[in-house]
Design goal:
412 residues; mainly alpha; Growth Hormone, Chain: A; 17 helices; 84% helix; 0% strand; globular; transmembrane transporter activity; MFS_dom; transmembrane helix
C-alpha cells in the first residue's frame, strides 16, 4: 500500500513539474524561436533585434536565478515557484499586447525573471522529495521543454498564419496555460519536510566553501556555461533557417514538433541511464550526439538534413540541462541544493545571454545560418571536454531516508 501511495505521489509531482517547465523554459523561453518569425514580421524587427529579444529574456533569467535559489532555501521552493508563475502570466499577457520593440523588451525580460523563479526551485523541490531518483526526476521535468516544442510546432504556425495578428493570440494562449499551472501548483505542491531538519544540521556550513568554491560545482558551472551559449541558438533560429531554405512553414513546424516529441521520452530515458551508469559517461555521449546533429544541416541544408538533425537533437538536447542540474545537486548537502542549482544556472544564463545575440550577429554579418551553427558546435565541444574530465562525486551528501518516511512527515 505504501509503495502505491509513494508511486502516486511521485507521478503527481512529476506531472506538475513537467507543466512548470512547460510554461517557464518552454513557453516562456524556447517557444520564442517558433513565434519569432511571425512576431518579427508583425513588429518589423531585424534579425539582430529579434535575437536580442531572446537575449533580454536570458538577462531576466540571469538577474533572478541566484536570488531564486536563495529564496527557495530560506522562504521555500513552493513559494518561489508560485511567485514565478504569476510573473510569467503577466509577462505573456504583456507580450500579446505589445505594440513596439520597447514594450516587447520589458515583457520578455519579465518572462525571463518568471522562468528563473520557477525552474530551479521546482527542480530543487523534486530532488528534495526524490533524491534517489534525481536523474529520472530531472529528466521528466525537462520533458516539459519537449512538450512545449510539440505544441509550438503544431499550433504556432497555424495560428500565426490563419488569424490576423495570430502571434498575439499565441502569447495569450501561453498566458492562459501559465495561469492554470499556477493554480495547480498552489493546490498540489508541498515543500519537502526534510528541508527544515537539514537546515538545522548544516548550520555550521560555509556556503562559499560548499558551493561557490567547490571544485565539483565549478566544473559543472563551466560545462553549463558552454552549453548555455549553444542552447538557444538552434531553437531560436532553426525555424528561420528552414524557411530560408524554402521549406514550407507547416513542414518546418512539423519537424520542430517531431524534435519535441522525441525529447518528451528522451529526457527521462537519459536521466534514468545516468542514475545507473553515472552522469559523466551520459553527459559525454549526449554532448557528442548534439554536435553531430547540428553539423548535419550545415553540410546538407535540405529537408532530409533538417529531419536527421531534429531526429538526433530532439533525442538528446533537452536532456543535457537535466543531467547537468542532477550533477550539480550531487555536489552539496541537501539544504544547499537550491543555492548550488541557482549558482550553476547563473553560468548557464550568462551563456544564454550572449548566445542568441551572437547567433543573430553571425547570421547577419558572417556567412548566414551555417556560421551560427558552427559556432554552436564549438561551444558544445568545450562542454564535452569538461564532461570528459568530470569525476563521480562522493555520496556523503545523499539523502538516505526512504520516501515513505518523508511522505509520513508531510501528513503529520
Amino acid at each position: 500500500m505504501e509503495d502505491r501511495v509513494n508511486a502516486k505521489m511521485f507521478w503527481a509531482y512529476m506531472l506538475v513539474g513537467l507543466l512548470l517547465v512547460l510554461i517557464s523554459l518552454g513557453f516562456g523561453r524556447l517557444s520564442y524561436g517558433v513565434v519569432m518569425p511571425f512576431m518579427q514580421e508583425g513588429l518589423r524587427l531585424s534579425y539582430a533585434q529579434a535575437g536580442f529579444l531572446g537575449t533580454i529574456t536570458s538577462l531576466g533569467y540571469l538577474a533572478t536565478v541566484l536570488l531564486a535559489g536563495w529564496l527557495a532555501a530560506r522562504w521555500g521552493n513552493k513559494q518561489t515557484v508560485v511567485l514565478g508563475c504569476s510573473l510569467l502570466v503577466l509577462s505573456m499577457f504583456g507580450l500579446s499586447s505589445s505594440n513596439g520593440y520597447g514594450v516587447a523588451m520589458v515583457a520578455m525580460f519579465g518572462a525571463g525573471v518568471g522562468s528563473g523563479m520557477v525552474f530551479t526551485p521546482a527542480l530543487s523541490l523534486m530532488v528534495g522529495w526524490f533524491p534517489e531518483r534525481r536523474g529520472l526526476a530531472a529528466g521528466f521535468l525537462m520533458s516539459g521543454t519537449g512538450l512545449a516544442m510539440v505544441l509550438s510546432g503544431l499550433i504556432v504556425p497555424a495560428v500565426s498564419t490563419g488569424v490576423a495578428d495570430g502571434w498575439r493570440w499565441v502569447w495569450r494562449g501561453f498566458a492562459a496555460a501559465a495561469l492554470l499551472v499556477f493554480l495547480l501548483a498552489v493546490w498540489l505542491l508541498r515543500n519537502p519536510p526534510s528541508a527544515a531538519s537539514a537546515a538545522a544540521r548544516s548550520g555550521g556550513l560555509s556556503i562559499s566553501e560548499q558551493v561557490y568554491r567547490n571544485p565539483g560545482v565549478l566544473r559543472v558551472a563551466g560545462m553549463y556555461f558552454s552549453f548555455g551559449i549553444a542552447y538557444l541558438v538552434p531553437s531560436t533560429f532553426q525555424m528561420s533557417y528552414m524557411l530560408a531554405q524554402q521549406i514550407a512553414s507547416t513542414t518546418a513546424g512539423m519537424l520542430t514538433a517531431m524534435g519535441g516529441v522525441l525529447s518528451l521520452a528522451s529526457s527521462p530515458v537519459w536521466g534514468w541511464v545516468s542514475d545507473r551508469i553515472g552522469r559523466q559517461r551520459t553527459l559525454v555521449a549526449a554532448f557528442a550526439t548534439v554536435m553531430v546533429a547540428l553539423l548535419i544541416p550545415v553540410l546538407y541544408p535540405k529537408l532530409l538534413g533538417f529531419f536527421l538533425s531534429q531526429l538526433l537533437s530532439g533525442s538528446t538536447i533537452a536532456a543535457i540541462p537535466a543531467l547537468i542540474q542532477a550533477s550539480a545537486s550531487e555536489q552539496v548537502p541537501p539544504v544547499l541544493v537550491p543555492v548550488a542549482l541557482g549558482y550553476v544556472t547563473i553560468f548557464f544564463s550568462v551563456g544564454q545571454l550572449v548566445g542568441p545575440g551572437l547567433g543573430g550577429w553571425f547570421i547577419d554579418h558572417v556567412m548566414g545560418f551555417p556560421s551560427a551553427y558552427l559556432f554552436t558546435i564549438l561551444m558544445l565541444s568545450l562542454g564535452l571536454a569538461l564532461a570528459y574530465g568530470m569525476r563521480a562525486p562522493a555520496r556523503a551528501h545523499e539523502e538516505t531516508r526512504p520516501l515513505a518516511s518523508r511522505t509520513d512527515e508531510l501528513h503529520r
